[in-house]
Design brief:
Layout: H1 13-21, E1 25-30, H2 32-39, H3 45-49, E2 59-63, E3 68-72, E4 78-81, H4 89-101, E5 109-114, E6 117-123, H5 127-138, E7 151-159, H6 165-181, E8 197-205, H7 215-225, E9 230-235, H8 273-278, H9 292-297, H10 307-310, H11 312-322, H12 333-338, H13 365-401, H14 408-416, H15 436-449, H16 453-470, H17 473-490, H18 495-511, H19 515-531, H20 535-544, H21 551-567, H22 573-589, H23 593-607, H24 613-629, H25 633-643, H26 652-672, E10 685-695, E11 706-708, H27 721-735, E12 749-750, E13 761-763, E14 768-775, E15 782-795, E16 800-802, E17 807-808, E18 811-812, E19 819-821, E20 824-829, E21 834-843, E22 847-860, E23 867-872, E24 877-878, E25 888-889, E26 894-898, E27 904-909, E28 914-916, E29 920-929, E30 938-942, E31 948-950, H28 960-966, H29 976-984, E32 985-989, E33 1003-1011, E34 1017-1028, E35 1038-1050, E36 1053-1061, E37 1069-1077, E38 1086-1097, E39 1101-1112, H30 1117-1122, E40 1124-1125, E41 1130-1139, H31 1149-1156, E42 1157-1161, H32 1180-1185, H33 1198-1206, E43 1212-1224, E44 1227-1240, E45 1245-1249, E46 1255-1256, H34 1271-1284, ...
Parallel strand pairs: 1-4, 1-7, 7-8, 8-9, 13-26, 28-35
Antiparallel strand pairs: 2-3, 5-6, 10-12, 10-14, 11-27, 14-21, 15-16, 15-20, 15-22, 17-18, 19-21, 22-23, 22-26, 24-25, 27-29, 29-33, 30-32, 30-34, 31-33, 34-35, 36-37, 36-45, 37-41, 38-40, 38-42, 38-43, 39-41, 43-44, 45-46
Length: about 1300
């Protein structure tokens, strides 16, 4: 083959043009013995000389006519066998196809940054294009309109071992002369046939003897042919082959075998009938493709890049009208084998059959130096002087003929021709070899070969004018092309010269109908335009060269056009992606699936995540089809998974088809897999952030009247987690025998909001609950069957178990001897449905459990063809606030199973959700030891000590805000944390008490009183139970159990109290009480309220039972008899208070309460005995009266404690006991019992329960406020006022208050 370029080198634009047009073509022919000398190295002579065909020193090319000398650097000779012929049509196409299909991989890539998007990655070099370009130029048919592909000289090679080297050289010379002077001319073509340069080379085999023996034969050779045309070199100087030396020839060996199988044949087979019509893979002929008449009459070889081949379609059309021919062009190996009888054997002359052969094993370093020196000497001594002489002759001939007119035909043509290019099937003018126009063109080609680009441009410019005048459009286009290249190589390229190339391409393509030369000109123009940063112009030229009948060429040029748009000064990313898609499509039609796959992948980088959903779907689907054809099933599944994303705009029917193909591809991949592992599926979608893990004890069963402790569940909100942590800290500190310096709350629930870098701890025998969200991201409904968890378990002994092997042959064979797990039979997810799945897993041994993912059978509801797959739980990294901290991940799914421990089961009396404000419940708390160890510590904490009373065996203490009224606390010291624990924590069982513990299977009952808040709305009471674990238990020190009581508080009764001066003279203090039923007729429930008793808690005043007056507004006699307030009714009570003289010495708290509480009985209601008695310590009256440390903030400060100690808590408290009947549309539901509390601080002010804005009732114009304990001060003030002014003032008081003043007014 002719090697014009070197694809292994990354050539610049000028180097590429030099390798194509500035490499003089030298023919060679060898004697038999000379070839044998070369074959010792597994090379022929052309291959032997090829690595050394470039001169290493500077030569000079002189033009005697112009008086110009040009230095020639790096001139490379293109030496080929004179018997070489371009390959025929089918073989040339096979070579072009293989040049692309054999170069599918690339090592280096480069990244191109895109604004606001991830950078795209493209190959750094395009080896397939470079290789195709080299083959394209190499197999190009030599044409008469240019001389760069014509032989300039010939090397006649003989051996020193020839019996008569001179005679052998004469014999070979005659053969060459016949080839140069044959009529009509045949291949090869020569630049000069009359005076061709024939040089002679004698090879001496150094392994056979010293070179001095060959000197005599060489002298005879020089005597016969001249000193400057004869050369002698010695090769094969080694006595034995050296197999370890560097192979300099391997990169020049081309693996284009006649019988070689195309690499991508299997992968390129069409998969659909449409692809069969688009990508033919066989050639079916009923008659010969080329008519016999043409074969018999034409001596030329038909070639895809030859001028004669351009007329082949017209010839074939005529032939097909007479004979029925089916012709489909392809690169099929089988078709080529059928046509081998017509292949020119000279095409594959002496080509190697194996690439693993060692080349040049007999050559020493001196031999390779000899080859280099030969090329140097041949070029300087023979070739350049010969070319200088030819150039001089051409200049002289052209000058002499300038004044001579051309033929009559040519002159007439210049007069009548329109000089406009038109469509012509043949050249308008036939030039002889000695015509001035061809000599001018030949002169320009010789100048161009040897680097004199200035004179070359002038010659081309003159030639193009002559050819244009003669309407010789092919010659004209060639001159334009070379003129543009000469200007580029000279460095004087401008817009005009670029237009030359544009006009040349257009003329080749539209006028001459020579697409092969148009393609060549486009490739070279691309290099020139890219060098000038005119990428868009290059892209337009490349795109124009696409055609329907040349898929491979179109694909390569479209790919280069895409890169041009990408590298433009203002990149066109969408055009790059669009042309990449077009290139991928043409690669597919050409059978180059690997390159098609690559181009679609490059386009996908730009189009994905840009909002172009339909375009993205098209590319992803095409990539999947290409990947399936290339047996890249993993990538096919990835692309098909992308088509099933939530943002897809495809119809339900289309998505059903995608799902069907996805399942079928996944099934194929599983059948081909040898690992036996489950494949990851993309449906349904697993929301990784929704995964929650709960490790806690088992709740007891619910009974008819009792419910188990609500504990913590997977749906718990994390917003109030700080409250539970605060209660836990109080409990831990209360139960600990020494202060805990660094408290760390225990974790039972793990989620994305509460990650864990430590393993969750689970007690053996207790379940592990897991919740996660599944979503159907597509419109068709999907079915997920036999859903279970995928796990690994490691015993403490190190033995490892997993359920991966349970999923075989399409069935699930569960083995629950190690781990028991929930199996959900079926989950059907409709369009875009999200569903939270709860599962439970339990181990049978102590060790480590790792939950890997979810396993199930996925299928479409329509097709119901299931396939096993898994959804893995991802390791979610945990962000650390510490700079340069080691990256860690969430370990919530890696659970450590601890030995058995204590377990507590707690039940509560079930309470109604809908309650009345102030309603009190008596609840039984059943505490049962369900474990195997005794429990010695049980503590209960609540965030609402005001609404919860837990009866225990321990002595109850007054709240600190009340205790200061009972005893002197001036000299006592208080701690805020300890006081908080005393308020919020209740001790049930303490290990510090002797013989006090809860044994296994033992039950303890505790009574609790719960009062609903007075404020309307939803309310929850949090209860946390603490109990200990056995001594020396690993990892944990105690266990916790949660319970939360939820209630919705409704309006019931409102109580208003006002403290007055009943008698100005006697100083009696009066109390005005008004109770009103707030229930309305439009409320959901009907509530009737009965009042039982009311109490006054005060150390200064008590009730006077003889002076209590009732003013009611009962609507019915029955309500009046029962003292029952119907909806919106009220009852007013007026009573006189007596001053008490209690002893300051208090015998005890109970005695203190007894002395300060006075009562008035309204009616007897027996069920009120369940209400906590007021004379017991810790009753709701005292809890409501007391001031508590705040729980609504996470940290209690010293200021909070000081405000509690300094608070003035000395006021009068009024308590009302009541009973209410609740009815729903006349149907009785239940009775409710409760208490209301009103705390009075000042005279003449209204106080309410439930609390609201207080109102001050002014008896006079004074705005001074008086405490209820400052009655005397107020009376003295009033007395002075009346003595100074006897005039009555306007009484603005309420009617109820005026009635209490009547005795005073009558006096």
């Amino acid at each position: 083959m002719i090697n014009l370029t070197n694809s292994s080198a990354n050539l610049s634009s000028k180097e590429l043009i030099q390798s194509i047009f500035s490499s003089p073509l030298i023919g060679s022919t060898c004697s038999q013995l000379a070839e044998e000398i070369c074959h010792k190295n597994n090379l022929n002579f052309v291959q032997l000389i090829q690595p050394f065909s470039k001169i290493s020193t500077e030569a000079h090319f002189r033009d005697s006519t112009a008086g110009v000398s040009v230095s020639v650097r790096g001139l490379r000779l293109n030496i080929c066998d004179v018997d070489y012929r371009p390959p025929q049509t089918l073989l040339a196409r096979k070579m072009l196809n293989e040049s692309v299909s054999n170069n599918t991989d690339y090592d280096k890539t480069r990244e191109i940054k895109i604004h606001n998007q991830e950078p795209i990655t493209i190959p750094e070099r395009h080896l397939w294009f470079e290789e195709w370009r080299e083959v394209f130029f190499s197999v190009q048919f030599p044409s008469d309109h240019e001389f760069t592909r014509h032989l300039l000289a010939c090397l006649i090679v003989v051996s020193s071992s020839d019996s008569n080297p001179v005679e052998q050289a004469n014999h070979l010379t005659k053969k060459i002369k016949m080839m140069q002077n044959i009529t009509p001319p045949k291949l090869p073509k020569w630049i000069s046939t009359d005076d061709a340069l024939n040089c002679y080379l004698m090879l001496h085999d150094g392994s056979l003897g010293d070179i001095s023996k060959a000197q005599q034969g060489f002298e005879n050779l020089k005597a016969a042919f001249g000193d400057n045309r004869c050369f002698l070199i010695q090769i094969n100087s080694l006595k034995e082959p050296n197999t370890s030396q560097i192979d300099h020839w391997i990169k020049y060996m081309k693996n284009y075998q006649k019988n070689e199988t195309v690499e991508s044949t299997v992968d390129s087979l069409p998969k659909t009938p449409q692809e069969i019509t688009q990508m033919p893979n066989t050639i079916q002929t009923e008659v010969s493709i080329i008519p016999k008449s043409i074969l018999n009459t034409s001596p030329e070889i038909f070639h895809p890049l030859s001028p004669l081949q351009e007329n082949m379609p017209e010839i074939l059309v005529t032939q097909q009208q007479q004979q029925q021919t089916t012709m489909t062009m392809s690169s099929s190996t089988n078709s080529l084998n059928d046509q081998m009888s017509t292949i020119n054997p000279n095409v594959w002359f002496n080509e190697p059959t194996e690439f693993n052969q060692i080349h040049g094993a007999w050559l020493a370093n001196s031999d390779m130096d000899n080859l280099k020196h030969f090329v140097q000497d041949f070029t300087i001594r023979a070739l350049i002087p010969y070319v200088e002489r030819i150039v001089g002759q051409l200049n002289e001939s052209i000058t002499n003929k300038k004044s001579v007119s051309k033929s009559l035909l040519g002159a007439t043509k210049r007069w009548f021709n329109t000089n406009k290019p038109g469509i012509a099937t043949q050249t308008a003018v036939i030039y002889t070899s000695d015509s001035t126009e061809l000599q001018t063109r030949k002169l320009g080609d010789l100048y161009f070969m040897f680097g004199n680009y200035n004179l070359a441009f002038q010659a081309y410019h003159q030639a193009k004018r002559d050819f244009y005048a003669d309407s010789a459009w092919q010659f004209y286009a060639g001159s334009l092309e070379m003129a543009a290249l000469a200007a580029f190589m000279q460095g004087t390229a401008n817009k005009k010269t670029y237009d030359y190339m544009e006009e040349a391409i257009t003329t080749y393509l539209t006028v001459c109908r020579l697409p092969q030369f148009a393609t060549r000109a486009t490739i070279l123009s691309m290099e020139c335009l890219k060098n000038a940063q005119l990428y868009c112009d290059a892209a337009k030229q490349l795109t124009r060269m696409t055609s329907e009948d040349a898929d491979l060429r179109s694909a390569l040029l479209l790919e280069q056009a895409a890169y041009c748009y990408l590298f433009a000064q203002s990149p066109f990313y969408r055009k790059y992606a669009f042309h990449s898609v077009l290139s991928g499509h043409r690669y597919t039609k050409a059978g180059q699936r690997k390159h098609a796959f690559r181009m679609y992948k490059q386009a996908e980088q730009v189009i994905s995540n840009r909002g172009w959903n339909l375009a993205e779907d098209h590319i992803q689907y095409t990539i999947s089809k290409q990947a399936i054809a290339l047996k890249k099933l993993e990538e096919a599944i990835e692309c098909l998974s992308h088509l099933l994303r939530p943002t897809s705009l495809q119809s339900s029917q289309q998505q059903t088809g995608f799902l069907r193909e996805y399942i079928a591809t996944l099934k194929t991949l599983i059948s081909q897999s040898t690992s036996g592992d489950l494949m990851t599926i993309s449906l349904p979608c697993l929301n990784q952030t929704s995964v929650r893990v709960l490790v806690t004890s088992v709740s007891p069963k619910r009974t008819e009247k009792e419910i188990p402790a609500s504990n913590i569940d997977l749906n718990n909100s994390l917003e109030e987690n700080w409250m539970w942590n605060k209660l836990e800290e109080m409990l831990a500190q209360s139960a600990s025998k020494k202060q805990i310096m660094m408290f760390k709350p225990s974790s039972l629930l793990f989620s994305a909001e509460i990650p864990s870098i430590e393993h969750p701890l689970c007690i053996f025998g207790e379940p592990i609950q897991i919740a996660f969200e599944l979503e159907n991201p597509i419109k068709p409904s999907i079915l997920f069957e036999n859903v279970t968890l995928l796990w690994e378990f490691k015993k403490d002994s190190g033995e490892l178990f997993s359920n991966r092997g349970f999923f075989k042959n399409g069935e699930y064979s569960a083995d629950e001897s190690v781990v028991k797990c929930t199996v959900i039979d079926s989950i059907e997810l409709s369009e875009y449905e999200k569903r939270t799945i709860h599962m439970t897993i339990r181990t049978e041994f102590i060790g480590y459990l790792r939950i890997i993912g979810i396993v199930g059978k996925i299928s479409s509801v329509q097709d119901k063809i299931p396939i096993w797959g898994k959804l893995n739980f991802e390791k979610i990294p945990i962000k650390s606030d510490i700079i340069q901290a080691k990256q860690d991940y969430d370990r919530k799914l890696e659970i450590q199973i601890l030995p058995p421990a204590t377990a507590l089961s707690v039940r509560f009396t079930e309470l109604p959700r809908e309650v009345l404000s102030g309603e009190i419940f008596k609840a039984k708390v059943e505490i049962h030891n369900s474990g195997n160890y005794p429990i010695s510590d049980i503590y209960i904490a609540s965030n609402c000590p005001k609404e919860l009373i837990i009866k225990s065996n321990n002595a109850e203490e007054l709240p600190l805000s009340l205790a200061k009224d009972y005893r002197d606390i001036t000299n006592e010291t208080f701690n805020k944390d300890k006081e908080a624990r005393r308020q919020f924590v209740t001790k049930i069982i303490d290990s510090r008490d002797n013989d006090c513990q809860l044994n296994p299977n033992e039950t303890k009952e505790v009574i609790a009183y719960i009062q609903a808040p007075f404020k309307k709305g939803k309310k929850s009471i949090k209860i946390l139970i603490y109990y200990n674990v056995p001594e020396n238990y690993p990892k944990i020190r105690y266990r916790l159990l949660r319970h939360e009581i939820f209630m919705n508080v409704n309006d019931c009764v409102t109580v208003e109290c006002v403290c007055n001066i009943a008698n100005h003279l006697s100083g009696e203090v009066g109390l005005d009480i008004t109770a009103k039923n707030l229930n309305q007729t439009h409320h959901l429930y009907s509530i009737n309220v009965q009042l039982s008793d009311f109490f006054i808690y005060c150390d200064t005043f008590s009730l006077n039972s003889d002076k209590v007056y009732f003013v009611n507004n009962f609507l019915t006699q029955e309500a009046k008899e029962k003292s029952e307030l119907l909806p919106n009714e009220l009852l007013s009570i007026r009573c006189i208070l007596n001053k008490t003289h209690n002893s300051q010495i208090k015998a005890g708290i109970e005695e203190h309460l007894k002395q300060n509480i006075s009562c008035n009985h309204i009616q007897t209601i027996g069920e009120l005995d369940n209400i906590f008695h007021l004379k017991e310590v810790g009753n709701f009256l005292l809890r409501n009266k007391a001031i508590w440390l705040p729980f609504s903030q996470q940290n209690i400060t010293n200021d909070d404690l000081n405000s509690l100690l300094n608070a003035n808590n000395r006021h009068m408290s009024v308590c009302f006991n009541w009973k209410a009947s609740i009815n729903d549309n006349g149907k009785f539901l239940r009775y409710a019992y409760g208490q209301h509390f009103v705390h009075i601080d000042h005279l003449f002010e209204s106080y309410f329960c439930p609390s609201r804005t207080r109102e001050m009732l002014s008896f006079n114009l004074s705005e001074e406020v008086y405490s209820i304990y400052e009655c005397k001060k107020y009376l003295d003030k009033i007395s002075e006022s009346f003595n100074s002014d006897d005039e009555w003032l306007e009484n603005k008081r309420l009617m109820s208050n005026r009635s209490l003043l009547e005795p005073f007014m009558s006096t």
